[in-house]
Specification:
The protein has 143 residues and is α/β, with parallel strands linked by helices. It has a single domain, classed as 3-Layer(aba) Sandwich (Rossmann fold). It has 3 helices and 7 strands, in the order βαβαββαβββ. The protein has a 7-stranded mixed sheet, with helices on one face. The two termini are 15 Å apart.
Length: 143
């Protein structure tokens, strides 16, 4: 699945819609360069799960948990992790196999060795026009 976003708002709305259809327990890996739209996507996704709390990229927090409806959101930013071992040390494993929410992981390539087999991969890419992003989804099953 391929989506061309023309604005920050487009990305936000795309993510919000996706959040309403995605299965609880899903692990979603967000991949792409700095400024490609991963955190914007996470914010829109939170909106789709009726989360009003601010979702961002806190400097010292790697795992953030938000209570949502119909399910929770676990937002993980692996940017400051070295590798899979770092992730396991901070208790990340529980968010790879749970049934209370959806886990979104930014910079998931750092922990690719331990991602579940059914992980959904979303690739973000800046296109030549300033506010245009390509968002490509792999591994999303039709329900
Ligand atoms: N189509 C778009 N989708 C998402 N962000 C966009 C888009 N166009 C411009 N932007 C800007 O790009 C930046 C994306 O930042 P962010 O979502 O934090 O990226 P990342 O988490 O991948 O580093 C924001 O400043 C946002 O305003
Ligand atoms: Mg980010």
């Amino acid at each position: 699945m391929n989506f061309i976003s023309k604005s920050e708002r487009d990305t936000f709305r795309f993510a919000s819609n996706l959040a309403q259809s995605i299965k609880v327990g899903s692990v979603v890996a967000l991949l792409g360069n700095l400024g490609s739209g991963k955190t914007t996507f996470a914010k829109g996704f939170a909106m789709g799960l009726n989360i009003t709390e601010h979702v961002g990229s806190p400097t010292f927090k790697i795992i953030s948990e938000y209570v949502g409806n119909p399910h929770n959101l676990y937002h993980i930013d692996s940017y400051r992790l070295e590798d899979e071992n770092d992730f396991l040390k901070i208790g990340g494993e529980e968010f790879l196999n749970q049934k209370r929410g959806v886990t979104l992981i930014e910079w998931a390539s750092l922990i690719k060795g331990i991602l579940p087999k059914d992980t959904i991969f979303i690739y973000f890419k800046r296109l030549s026009e300033k506010s245009t992003r390509q968002i490509r989804i792999e591994g999303l099953e039709d329900e």
